[in-house]
Write a structure and sequence with these properties.
single chain, elongated, 171 residues, 2 domains, mainly alpha
Length: 171
């Protein structure tokens, strides 16, 4: 867990595009390219000190002395770092939320309508599976299949209202 957190704090999640301005506020400047081994040693001491006091403390504002020294030496401030970290976290949370909503509800109007129709079809199938538990007079309002029901009632709001009305009639 702490290794993932370290990677997140320094570089952001995989595929994340962190601007150089934001990255400068999050961690001390990185050494020149080609010095990968030195880079690992450069941050190893900082992470070791932070691990000794715990990474939960890191987000509570209790950072190690070594981290504070290196960060302040790089020209950062505590307020600047906190602001940049929160800005990065909220932007990532929002991006994940948008991806999830796009997957769940669709991105454009065509996808949204298709997703809504799929959900209504599932609900309609549930109501149709319960029609044996309804009074005989209420069973007359059903078509042979849920798909046929959707073909006869093209407005989804009508189908949704019908589903709500029929759910109340289940014994």
């Amino acid at each position: 867990m702490s290794q993932n957190l370290i990677r997140y704090v320094l570089h952001g999640p995989p595929g994340c595009r962190v601007s150089k301005k934001d990255a400068a506020g999050l961690c001390p400047p990185l050494p020149p390219q080609g010095t990968v081994q030195k880079h690992a040693c450069y941050h190893h001491e900082i992470f070791g000190c932070q691990s000794s006091i715990g990474w939960k403390n890191f987000f509570r504002g209790h950072v190690s002395k070594k981290f504070q020294e290196r960060y302040l030496a790089a020209g950062g401030t505590k307020d600047n770092w906190t602001y940049n970290l929160l800005k990065l976290l909220w932007s990532e949370i929002h991006a994940l939320w948008e991806i999830r909503n796009g997957f769940e509800h669709g991105v454009d109007t065509c996808q949204k309508m298709h997703k809504r129709k799929q959900k209504l079809l599932k609900e309609l199938q549930q109501v149709y599976s319960q029609r044996d538990y309804m009074l005989a007079i209420d069973r007359d309002q059903f078509y042979d299949t849920p798909e046929e029901h959707l073909q006869h009632h093209t407005r989804l709001s009508q189908v949704q209202s019908w589903i709500k009305m029929m759910r109340r009639k289940v014994l």
